[in-house]
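Shipment paperwork, digital attachment
Item: protein structure file
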Amino acid sequence: MTFFESDIVRKEMTEIAELQQEVLGRVFNFERLPPEEQRRHVDIMEQLLEKQRVMYTRMSLSDDPEALAMKEEILKGCEVMGLPPNMDLNTFFSGMTRMLDQLRAQIKS
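Attachment content:
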């Protein structure tokens, strides 16, 4: 069985896609959302980030060629978005977690 044929991986990939859709559906209206909804949105972004971190780690630990190819595509995509080449994505994930904590702290009660 390949990496992407695993039931666990397929379930996680589906959940990541669903969370991405939910985040995208609200991201442009974030400032207009009531504080409770803003906190919920940040919580969803945090869930998404953690699932992405776990999936990236799984890909990194896999010896499946498809998983390693996907990891390389992710790294290339990060470079296109302006991240430094060969950046450790765990550092990126940690930075994003700090950013979400800061965003959560700025939400008015």
